[in-house]
Amino acid sequence: MQNIVAEAIPGEKYQFAFWAKLSGTASVKTNIIVRMRFENDDIVNGPCRREICNIFLRPVTTTIESKGRQWQRIVSDEFTMFGNYTKWPGQPSFILFTMLTKDMASSGELRVSNFEFLGEHSLTGEVITDSPTITTVPSMQPSNMEVPDYVRYIVRYAGDIRTVINYPFQVDKTGEILPMDGSKQYQLCEVDEVEGKYGVFPNRMGFFMGGKCVPIRGGNPTVHIDPIFVNMTDIHLLDLTDENSTTVTPINVEQTYGGDLLLESVVDDEICETFPNPYDNDYRGADAMNPDDVPSRFNPDQPVFAELPDGSYALYDSRLVTVENSLENPTPDGGGKSVLRSTIRAQRDGFTARVSTSGRAEFFVFNDHNIALCNNEQPNFLNRESCVLTYDENACVKEYEQSTNTFIDVQLVITFDEETLAKMHNATRASYREASPGFAARDNSRYIYAVKNLRFDDSIANGTLAGTKIDLPCYRAGGNPTSRWIPRPDLDASTCANSLQENTVAVLKHTLETSNDENPYIRDIVLWNQIEEDACNGADLYEFGMLIMTSEGCWENVHPDYM
């Protein structure tokens, strides 16, 4: 919701657009209402016969479809801004936009972002809402509660300046305005590294309040330094305003939507010698579940800012540490220490931790957004000539059923299609050597084939045939089961049936729909059995080959080596 009463032009024609993504249901009917609350001074000749008039417009009445959980742009009808209400007896207190859904399934989730006016009222293309809200009911507190030009709020993290903002923090669901006079400190929780105004998903920055994590409207605030309110000599600031000598390139665009920048220019400035050493710093703050290998982690160094050519500001990310990882000099830990440093905390989306029976912590990472990925690999016929054995305590390794390693690695995803299979086929032929004087021809090629319709019955799943026992979708002895699924577009909701328990269906359906496996032909999912709500019903542990209906269609469980 945004109060645009100060910006709206009475009687003008407007049109706006926004982005939406629907999951968990095939479609939903959606309305957007523009509401003006008018304080009426004349109940006889005014716009209504009450002291408070609520006047509504409905510029959007549409059905939003799932479309494979993809973001889609919605454009409103053109509408007139309530006529010339400046001539009415009284004044408007707010003009708010409210989105409503009708009879949406309980499993459905609608996400909206980046509202913007079109045409002559486009505000040079800048969005009106900096970040979506996860509010499910209208709030009496609008989102754009900007303060006068002579007031700013300095936000500090661990005692040091993090940014300067011109609006108070608000609780997302209620609009409650939080104290911003320095009398109160807030403990962060569930913070995404995506800048709030770029976040095309719920805000994901919260404060611990009343014993729980409460989402804050607007998400992670934009980095900004205002020299009127900040003594610039008290901060570490690098001047990168010369566009002729500064090259800054967005990176990780799919993860952070342009919020991460890479400086590609050489900086020759004596001021760099005064900056803190990034190798001994850590910005995460205290968390008992994280590796405690950085002595300074509870007293982080003062941050380093840069002023960019466009006049905006950026905050230096001290976690970027470059290391050599070549065939001649591989990284001893395979990047394990960097992976540990980059994980935010236990129980966050995509990251869990547990202590094994040996007393060592094991870390499971199953989402590759905004964390470092391990670059190690097990020996195979492609890398065996250059493989080395490491005894580094933080070495990344692949997970085995029997493992005492300290870290369990992320497995990257490769989409097997005609192009990738052809490239891998050519790579496996590299071991072939033609005959030459003094040397006979040698063929050590290892050809790769795609195989489907593998046998998948009780004799395979139960191991009654020697060497055939495989992981089942709901069960893996001592670990988290991984299963493979293929789409069944030939089946609909009436024929995509199973005999599983209701909570098992819910777990498999949720995991299939939220998987970040983008392969359109097969999909691998992992169930995290340590967490009760992420595990199947005990009655279904040995089931396999089932059909599951999702918002994307029907999926069939197949042999884990199906390709």
Keywords:
globular; 4-stranded antiparallel beta sheet; 3-stranded antiparallel beta sheet; 5 helices; mainly beta; 7% helix; 563 residues; 25% strand
How would you summarize the topology of this molecule?
Blueprint: E1 13-14, E2 16-23, E3 27-40, E4 52-65, E5 72-75, E6 79-80, E7 90-102, E8 109-117, E9 153-157, E10 160-165, E11 188-189, E12 206-209, E13 212-215, E14 236-239, E15 248-251, H1 253-256, E16 260-263, E17 304-307, E18 313-315, H2 336-342, E19 351-355, E20 361-365, H3 418-428, E21 432-433, E22 442-443, H4 458-461, E23 482-487, H5 502-514, E24 523-526, E25 547-550, E26 553-558
Parallel strand pairs: 14-17
Antiparallel strand pairs: 1-6, 2-5, 2-8, 3-4, 3-7, 9-10, 11-12, 12-13, 15-16, 17-18, 19-20, 21-22, 23-24, 23-26, 25-26
What does it look like?
- This protein is mostly beta strands.
- A four-stranded antiparallel sheet has the order 24-23-26-25, covered by helices on one side.
- The protein has helices at residues 253-256, 336-342, 418-428, 458-461, 502-514, and strands spanning 13-14, 16-23, 27-40, 52-65, 72-75, 79-80, 90-102, 109-117, 153-157, 160-165, 188-189, 206-209, 212-215, 236-239, 248-251, 260-263, 304-307, 313-315, 351-355, 361-365, 432-433, 442-443, 482-487, 523-526, 547-550, 553-558.
- Helix content is 7%, strand content 25%.
- It has five helices and 26 strands.
- A hairpin with a 2-residue loop joins strand 25 and strand 26.
- The two termini are 47 Å apart.
- The radius of gyration is 28 Å and the shape is globular.
